[in-house]
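Case study B.
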Amino acid sequence: MAGNVLVFTEHTESDFRKVSYEAVSSGADLAAQLGGTVTAVAWPGAPGDATQRLAAFGAQKVIVFEGGSPEYAPDAQVEAALAAQETAEADVLIFPATVHGQELAARVGARLKAAVGSEVLEMGVQDGQVEVVRALYGGKVRAKVRYEGAPVVLTVRPNTFGAEKKEAAGERVTLSWPEVEEKGRVVDIQKSEATRPELTEADVVVSGGRGVGSAEGFKVLEELADVLGAAIGASRAAVDAGWRPQSEQVGQTGKVVTPKLYIACGISGSIQHWAGMSGSKCVVGINKDPQAPIFSRADYGIVGDLFEVVPELTKQLKEIKGQS
Amino acid sequence: MQEKEVEVKLVVAVKQVPDTEASIRIAPGEAKIDLSGVNMILNPYDEYAIEEALRLRDAHGGEVWAVTVGPDAAVDVLRTAIAMGVNDAVHIKAADVLDPLATAMLLADQVKQMGFDLLLFGKMAIDDAQMMVGPMVAELLSVPVVTRVSKLEVTDGRLKAERDVEGGRETLEAPLPAVVTAEKGLNEPRYPSLKGKMMAKKKVIETVEAGEVEVREKIVGLNYPPSRSGTKILGEGVDAVPELVRIIRDELKLV
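Model:
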């Protein structure tokens, strides 16, 4: 195994997604352990200074494409990814664990007959083989998984790996965009109102459960989220009751979130919910019921009515922000 | 007279997984999970895939097949699928330790023989959470795939699917045959009826032995996740707020 690592990025209109920098940075660490080089891939439509941006997080080479449009073209992306793998002579391919990234990783993995690991928590090398840590059974168990030989396809979730600045050469490698007729087509894209950060990328998540009581009840949580720049999450109970959209559900049958701070309001804290937020650095539970399971697992707890505690918290945080 | 829709062949790939309520134990001294006594269920996301297939069958005519890869006991999830209303099922008998590529290759071989207009999966299996097998099978068969679908329409040999992606919601179209993976919210899965359960019990399910597949993934260690040091109760009601504000400001440095 030559030990070269290829990292795929994802971007918005203005920048690469944070997970892209995290993937490049952690990919560079893995390449160093394997004794290979790390190459990043920027898709058509990426920021013009993609090379510099990705080099700042350790990309020794950056593959960019000539031709191709910024429109989502999954079939062409598969072929382009395979071309990039060949150019980089990559043994390990890392994708962001986004909806598009995860789907692409699987398709490229199938074509390469690769060993695959989704949403890895750690990446390393043992006895010359790639070894990762993954969560199984909704986070109830963590497995050390070793992959025999290459290629290996991995995906990384936002906020799992740090994005460390490490200057690298960022040599620009240009490939031509493959001419592929897409099997399907995108007929519509509804952009979500970007007033709040993406749930899976947010530093702070304010989450509500059964105790919030109604759709209107989430207003106090939204006000807290606004002052903290937080995303809104919800328990299964709140989603099933129709108070919040499915896209906000956190848990074993919802999203997995990894913020610095997770504030669980009126959430009892079932093991299925815990599976979705146990990767949070700090968990605060606010609940009326002192016996709620959240109070045996959260880092901090406040026993009380969320409709009193949350507005007071919002008010005091606003005052601090006003002073600074 | 209204023209009858062309009948569709729907195949749903399902998996047997431990109940979400189950506590998972690591076998002492081994890198293995001890599943003895653990209640096994149909993967929850697969229920959405089955329900959608049943609805499409009822709207267009045709039939729904379920297929699974797994050990002897995995046949139970096929019986659950039949009890929900699936017409027929195939059990690909294989060791319980496979990786996504191996599973995808076994499934791809099987469904290619069976033929399908639409092949449905749950968006992920809740045990190994790989989210890989559905799109891998699509790629192995060179058919279009849309993952994490929360709204689906099928008309005139094409599908139209909606899904949430980071930053928005996409609507995609693709020709059949195709693969989709089902997100929660796609529908409200039905419960198996009593009659369905009776039928499922009696049904003779075809079994095929899995071919040789290479597995390159090996679990070399298992641990329980690091436990938190326990909850520090900051107090009751609004009186506890200043301490939480201090933690958010001084320790977490988030304001």
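Helices of chain B lie at 44-60, 75-84, 100-114, 133-140, 194-202, 241-251. The remaining cases will be described in the next quarterly update.
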